[in-house]
Amino acid sequence: MKQTSLEKIILETIDIPSLPPIAMKVLQLISSDTSSIKELEEILSKDQSFSARLLRIANSPYYGKNRSVDSISSAIILIGFNTMKSLVVAASLKDMHRNFGIFEQKLWEHSLAVSLAASAIAAETKMMKPDEALVAGLVHDMGKIVLNTSLADSYALVIERAYAEGLPFLDIENDVLGFNHCNVGGLIARKWKLPKNLETVIEFHHTEDLSVLADTSYEVSCQITRIADAICLHLGIGFKRDIDIANIGLDSIGYDIKKIDKLIEKIKTTYEEQRTTLLQ
Ligand SMILES: [Fe+2]
Ligand SMILES: [Fe+2]
């Protein structure tokens, strides 16, 4: 009940954005039972820059080290239709921004760093597929893009306060707007019929008590995204906050804190390697 009334408020306050037309077409096609790889390739061939972006994500180092994906059809065969859905959304994010200024750049750097950190953690702990962690990281703060685009004036105030007060965006959003980027992101993920694992990460990546989840199989991806987010805030890539690394819940995924320095080095190196190529 509570969730329903909150969603009502959000729907009355913001315009639900649509995905870029190319992404919409691809998602519709993937969702229909009769879709074929050929049809998908035909649509994607009409937008070279979008296809190139999609392939760049499919070729990112954590997506699979020993292969090079050079066509959309081989990407679909290797990755599968369902993961392709997530990839399409990730590749669309840049087109969803109203404009691309300093905040947008920082949000992009943050999301990229979180995605690389999440997939590094996934690869090391073997608790989830690194490619799924990568896409989840790229889209986890999608609600912020929507808020920043749809409620530009109030969100400018949120950004200003988050920087000035050094507090989490989530708290300031709740204070200024009465809802936050997780509520908004979750709602939109449902509207767009995104895969359930992605929807859950978008909605619950700041939730500490994950017993609220109806399906516990998504717990790990939420935890890994939350921990990756905290590490990147600690490192100050994109956004920066004072975070005590000993207190970010590494034990919840059975991660040995002694290994954190090595992990941090790996994240920094991969980020530097990837930042100019991924999601350009
Ligand atoms: Fe977030
Ligand atoms: Fe984040």
In short:
The protein has 280 residues and is mostly helical. It has helices at residues 2-13, 21-31, 37-44, 48-58, 72-79, 81-96, 102-125, 130-139, 142-150, 152-165, 169-177, 181-191, 196-204, 219-235, 260-274. Helix 9 (142-150) packs across helix 12.
What is the overall shape?
Answer: globular
Please state roughly what percent of the residues sit in beta strands, choosing from under 5%, 5-15%, 15-25%, 25-35%, 35-45% or over 45%: under 5%
Helix content: 55-70%
Strand count, sense and barrel status of the largest sheet are: none
SSE blueprint and pairings:
Layout: H1 2-13, H2 21-31, H3 37-44, H4 48-58, H5 72-79, H6 81-96, H7 102-125, H8 130-139, H9 142-150, H10 152-165, H11 169-177, H12 181-191, H13 196-204, H14 219-235, H15 260-274
Helix pairs in contact: 2-3, 2-6, 4-6, 5-6, 6-8, 7-8, 7-14, 7-15, 8-13, 8-14, 9-10, 9-12, 10-11, 12-13
This protein binds fe (ii) ion (2 copies).
How is this structure best described in words?
- This protein has 280 residues and is an all-alpha fold.
- The protein has a domain at 2-16 and 97-274: Hypothetical protein af1432 (Orthogonal Bundle), CATH 1.10.3210.
- Helix content is 66%, strand content 0%.
- It is built from 15 helices and no strands.
- It has helices at residues 2-13, 21-31, 37-44, 48-58, 72-79, 81-96, 102-125, 130-139, 142-150, 152-165, 169-177, 181-191, 196-204, 219-235, 260-274.
- The chain is globular.
- It starts with a helix and ends in a 6-residue tail after the last helix.
- One fe (ii) ion (FE2) is lined by residues 140-141, 181, 205-206.
